[in-house]
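A reminder from the course coordinator: this example appears on the midterm review sheet, so study it carefully.

Given structure:
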């Protein structure tokens, strides 16, 4: 994509997405000039999936950018990202949640997080099963950790052309969010986020109640790994 095309893509998505659906521009592997083009078109939330990219990009970009971590997070990388991130989408174990809480306390921050749900057919995707997720919140973890705030859930659908399957999985993510909200977060107005939908399936995700889409390729083009 040229920088002009990136700006057009951001403008088109801002125009297309309904009010109440936030756009995370997934900028992993893309250079600063691509991010700046998106920024100039009004984009302020950027998503990265490699811990080592967040610090340098944070330092080089304007201060009003919100950084989200969306990829699989290892405990030994938590320290690298906690000073910079406003939302971690990919909490997939209680141990990781506790690790983020401890590190956030150490640096005097509170970090917003999402619980990643595993609904896809692929075994390679990380995340809690619905039962594990329920067990986690039943254990009272949400109230006991002072430096993380659980804002909602995140999930990925199976990578397939079967639209009905994708729709069913997004429906399951949204309905798990609704159940958790009713059972444990009814009084927390900040439990408001359902992160689902990527370049190839975000329209279905929005249809099924996404409040946050994570889009990379449609904005920036193919990544060069
Ligand atoms: C890379 C990535 C995306 C963006 O994928 P695209 O297909 O490029 O839109 C979204 N979510 C997660 C978790 C990712 O790792």
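Designed residues:
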């Amino acid at each position: 994509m040229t920088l002009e095309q990136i700006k057009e893509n951001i403008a088109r998505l801002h125009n297309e997405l309904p009010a109440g659906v936030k756009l995370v521009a997934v900028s992993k592997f893309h250079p600063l000039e691509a991010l700046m083009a998106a920024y100039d078109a009004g984009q302020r939330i950027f998503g990265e999936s490699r811990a080592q990219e967040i610090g340098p990009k944070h330092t080089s970009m304007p201060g009003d950018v919100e950084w989200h971590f969306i990829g699989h997070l290892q405990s030994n990388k938590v320290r690298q990202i906690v000073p910079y991130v406003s939302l971690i989408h990919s909490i997939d174990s209680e141990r990781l949640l506790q690790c983020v809480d401890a590190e956030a306390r150490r640096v005097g921050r509170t970090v917003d997080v999402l619980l990643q749900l595993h609904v896809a057919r692929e075994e390679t995707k990380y995340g809690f099963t619905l039962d594990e997720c329920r067990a986690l919140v039943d254990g009272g973890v949400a109230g006991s950790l002072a430096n993380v705030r659980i804002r909602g859930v995140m999930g990925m659908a199976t990578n397939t052309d079967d639209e009905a399957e994708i729709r069913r999985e997004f429906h399951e993510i949204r309905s798990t969010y609704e159940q958790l909200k009713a059972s444990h977060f009814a009084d927390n107005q900040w439990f408001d986020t359902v992160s689902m939908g990527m370049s190839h399936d975000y329209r279905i995700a929005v249809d099924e109640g996404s409040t946050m889409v994570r889009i990379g390729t449609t904005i920036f083009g193919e990544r060069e790994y």
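The domain at 3-220 is CATH 3.20.20.10 (TIM Barrel). The longest helix spans residues 163-184.
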